[in-house]
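Need tokens for this chain, all 337 residues.
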Amino acid sequence: MFRRSLTSSLRLASRALHTSRPANARCAVVGAAGGIGQPLSLLLKESPLVSHLNVFDLAPVTPGVGADLSHINTKAQVSSFAGADQLGPALKDCDLVIVPAGVPRKPGMTRDDLFNINASIVAGIAEAAAANCPNAFLLIISNPVNSTVPIMAETLKKLGAYNPKKLFGVTTLDVTRANTFVAENQGLDVDGVNVPVVGGHAGITILPLLSQVPNTSFSQEDKEKLTHRIMFGGDEVVQAKDGAGSATLSMAYAGAQFAFQVLRAANGEKGITECTYVESDITELPFFSSPVTLGVDGVEEIHGVGELDAFEQQKFEEMIPDLRAHIEKGVAYVQNN
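Here are the structure tokens for all 337 residues:
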């Protein structure tokens, strides 16, 4: 399904960045002062594919983040933007915008409270993007991705600025986890492991297709345990951090690597295929994550899920109602606000 394993391709891409034709992309990180935003900005600053890096956050520490990054001796020029009135200038004429902005769930906060706050944040970013960088690639990390991508899409539609080829939910972390866990389980070199992960980006909507991984053999117990671990890998990090944080470093890595793949494809490199959550017609749902071939204009071809074994088919059917509800919740938010 992939031309090479995702982990291998990302590592090769990282090395190739120093010899490939530069894209000279102007990129913005929205939520750059947060736990994901800071390491994500660092990784983007390091890439020769990025000529300008705009870091934006509401937090007053943002100029310090920008100043810190600007001392790194790579070519990307860094500009800092802090405060709600600076969102538009931060996005002005950007080629790629990556959005880890949002708030984590706090004690006493219901899931609906969290959803409403992050939904409002994403809708506001969509409005600013429509006005300031209508042709940018938009990469959404803000949770819940299953809902925030539809929120972004519906908001952009209202403003006449929606391009489904350029809106992506970043699900790369699910694939990097899957490759890591499967390599450990099978005693394989992780660079040679290829695990397609389809569906969405939360809990049971994350479905690794272990039956499609070459040169592997899983017991039913291993298959069930690995699938559950990939679905709920974020919980491991939260527990290990003793409730004091979530998956920030691995998410920053995954977000940066997906951004590099989008930029490489935009720069004319062929054959780049990644799992990502996009507007899709391969299932009955309007949004779905599956392998997507990237091109100069974004989505070039959306691939199906392929043949599933009985276990995967059951999990696939179980995920659909949840994923549909998440999508409908995002659409309803925009309709009602």
